[in-house]
Amino acid sequence: MLIDRVERTQDETSLEGLSDDAIKELFKTKVNAELQDLCIRPLEKFARPDIPHATISTKKNHKETLAHLIQVTEDRVRQHFATEASVMTSIAQRVDPRLKIKASIEVGKRKYWIALASSAAFKNRTTWDCLHVLHTDIVTVWNFRNPHHYLDSSEFRTLIVNMVDKLDVGPTADPNKKIAMRLSVVASIAGIMAALAGPAAPIVVPIAAGLVIAAWVYDVYQVSRAVLQRFMAYIVDLTLVLQTLYLVSENEELSRRGIKLAVASYNASISGEVHARIQEYDRELTPLDRRDRNTLDKIIELMQLYSLDAEAISNLRKEVPAVGSAPDEPWE
Fold first, then answer.
1. Which of 13, 48, 72, 100 is most buried (most C-beta within 10 Å)?
2. Per-residue pLDDT of the chain (332 residues; tens, 9 = 90+)
3. Read out DSSP for 189-246?
4. What are phi and psi of 80, to 5 degrees?
5. 270 CB-side CA count, 13 A
6. CA pair distance 158, 166, nearest whole angstrom
7. Distance, CA of 318 to CA of 63 (rounded, Å)
8. Cβ neighbours around 280 below 10 Å, total
């Protein structure tokens, strides 16, 4: 409403010769000034200066303002209630993916992530069973519209396992190999998704989703470098695939096509670098340093490094064709 009024009363002659970005910045400055005069100062005078507030708009070009509202709400809940309450707030919202990642970390800390290298809970269980527990906890936090349970299916779990299987866990990796300078995460994913998202042909994921699965998932859990690297990769890969799926799905009901698009985009853009960072981390640790606290810190570091905020997601969605308009397709 306020934005509409500023646009309606703007002297168009003052916009002549300005670029689109300059016009947008001019409108933003004027809206903020009027907002202070008409809303915020009277509110602070009536209540108090530190009263929490958020300016929002449901217009398409200002959807990132909703993320600020969610963030303010989550901050207040975290300050005044138990951690569980703020986690539930983050799970319920479908606006800010960074809060989803933050909630995943909080859930992981309270459960198994903090003891991946020495978890008694995983003793005598197969790797597949252990990953099943981690997978369910992470997927639950994202709160997707998933009525067909595609994210819980053996096909999707197999896609993530076989992506992790590309991780070189052997000792032959060159310790002097430098990680290639990465493109912007946003630009990288945007380019790949734009190429894949058209409705012309089925999306081909270069990782098997059928019955063929990496043999190591049937091994009984044991403490080793290989197991630790694979568990770390599974947690980070799954989380970042779900972040990409959040971008693709736009809060619509999930489809196998959308899930395959998210997997293919992540796999072709940054999964290799994520795996390289996990290998680099493992190479730098001595056996005495390879402790649970260090592992948890590295998982958090990677997830935060590649997380996208609501504004980045909003900008990406402008560049990527809608997936929901295309018919669904089988896993393979």
1. 100
2. 566 666 666 667 666 777 777 777 777 777 777 777 777 777 777 776 666 766 666 666 666 666 666 677 767 766 766 667 666 767 777 678 888 888 888 888 877 776 676 666 787 889 899 899 999 999 999 999 999 999 999 999 999 999 998 886 544 344 344 333 334 556 666 676 666 656 556 777 766 555 567 888 888 888 788 888 899 999 999 999 999 998 888 888 999 988 998 898 888 888 888 999 998 888 877 655 555 567 888 899 999 999 888 777 877 777 776 676 667 888 87
3. HHHHHHHH-SSSSPPPPSS--SS---GGGGSBP---HHHHHHHHHHHHHHHHHHHHHH
4. -110, -5
5. 28
6. 13
7. 12
8. 15
> For residues 166 and 84, what is the distance between their CA atoms, to the nearest angstrom?
35
Dist CA 37 CA 247 (whole Å): 36
What one-letter code names the amino acid at 126? T
Structure tokens at 47: 């209540």
